[in-house]
């Protein structure tokens, strides 16, 4: 009988028989697609574990050390191994993606600084605050990552000005890079109950024109409905 049957140890590596991709050579778009692919696969594998009534930490042995006979141990161990590898792959992908975003944002800042210098005709303008710019701000310049599916009247979301159909570009420090299929939005909401959170949205009018809006949303429980926001977000 194997020891620690419920805790397999694996090294980082691809989840299939394919050769590992050189993440450093991928474009930012390709890295985003890789990130989404990994997150979707992790979600699917976690659902399979849940269908067995177990998670990554559930013991697969009885109280006296024998393998449980009420679950498919072989399948569960295989799935856990894939999840561990995928988590390592996700971490590597995020590292390369954040580097790409930082490079793009730095190039954008240089271009803007150059344009400002040309327009100032040699005068001393206001100093750029690029030194205070974080990676989360760089991410906020990217595409929307979620859509507002519905808003309950008189809810915190309604009072903040959110409308169904709005596309979320950033929710506090959460953006298209780090939202992890909206789990980080839920965490941020729980951590900021009673405190205003900056939300950047894209809103289209009836003619199809888009406008960027900066809203402030305060999560709270005492508004008379369910949840802290009173709106439903779906990932894009």
Automatic annotation (TrEMBL):
One of its GO terms (cellular component) is cytoplasm. GO terms for biological process: proteasome regulatory particle assembly. Residues 1-21, 107-138 are annotated as: Disordered. InterPro entries: Nas2_N (IPR040815), PDZ (IPR001478), PDZ_6 (IPR041489), PDZ_sf (IPR036034), PSMD9 (IPR035269). Gene3D superfamilies: 2.30.42.10, 6.10.140.1710. The keyword Coiled coil applies. The keyword Chaperone applies. Residues 21-48 form a coiled coil. Keywords: Chaperone, Coiled coil. Residues 122-205 form the PDZ domain. Residues 107-137 have a biased composition (Polar residues). Belongs to the proteasome subunit p27 family. This is Probable 26S proteasome regulatory subunit p27.
